[in-house]
Amino acid sequence: MSQPTNQLAVFNFDNNKVRIILDENNQPLFVAKDVATVLGYKDTVNAIKQFCNGVVIHHPIKDSLNREQNVRVIYEPDLYRLIFGSKLESAVRFQDWVFNEVLPTIRKTGSYQTANTATTTASPVKEYSNSDLQHLKHVYNIPQLAKVLGVSEPQAIQRLYQSYADTANDIKLIDNNTQAILNQFWAVVSQLDLNQINHSKKPYILAISLPEVYALAGQQLPDKTQLQHALQQSLMPKFQQANHVVSSRITNQAKRCWNFLTNSQSQTGATQ
């Protein structure tokens, strides 16, 4: 398990301090009590026990009187669990603040930016459970989720799909042969450049032309007839329409595409 360092940063959200330290891999650790307080939990200790499934690390931090106190610190997945459990309207704003302001200041250089120098260290991919990802897909579109996970957009799609496929297999929603075809297809798509194949102008819709995908990676793909049948059962990304005409983001012309929903928070049946 990574150990915390002594590098401390104090952020302010609505006049509430949120203290963050880095572990030895430069991953942010949030002081759990600060987060729970901001999110309106009256019993912060119970909230941490209820929502934080990860390892809660105890780490000494000096208070305003320069006294050393042990505090509980949590990684990002548990931060999001506390956010999801909060009943405050400001929880969404806090989530956006963490995503848009706090994390970029940390990840821009791989460390907190100080007045002198900053050490850059490549950060490992965060380990989110399948349950975490099923929550996150309701909150973020693919570009945002990729930033949260610290991966590329194609990798984010692949990770989401794998998490959903595992869940789907557990309750046997899709037969094994169909699931194998879907696994093969989305694994190939995840390695392609989305900017070259996604014709949708909307961030929560993946609109792809099967002829284009076959032209790019046909030898790696399953039989086209079997694939078309399987894609109509795809759950993540969720199948929407086959051979639907969209106004292409790439060519600005009409293009027949297979549409998939990548963020279920958006309207089902949305096109383009």
Roughly what percent helix?
A: 40-55%
Tell me the number of helical segments per DSSP (H or I, 4 or more residues long). Answer: 11
- The tally of beta strands, per DSSP, is 8
Instruction: Give the biggest sheet.
Output: 5 strands, antiparallel
Beta fraction = 15-25%
User: Span between N and C termini?
Assistant: 44 Å
Which structural class should the secondary elements be placed in? alpha+beta
Instruction: Detail the poorly predicted runs.
Output: 109-126, 168-172, 264-269
Radius of gyration equals: 21 Å
Please tell me the overall pLDDT. 77
Shape: elongated
Q: Give me the side-by-side strand order of the main sheet.
A: 1-2-3-5-4
Describe the model:
- This is Bro-N domain-containing protein.
- The chain is of the alpha+beta class and 272 residues long.
- It folds into two domains: 4-107; 132-261, no CATH class.
- The chain has eleven helices and eight strands.
- The chain has a five-stranded antiparallel beta sheet. Strands 6-8-7 form a three-stranded antiparallel beta sheet.
- It starts with a strand and ends in an 11-residue tail after the last strand.
- The relative contact order is 0.09.
- Residues 109-126, 168-172 and 264-269 have low confidence and may be disordered.
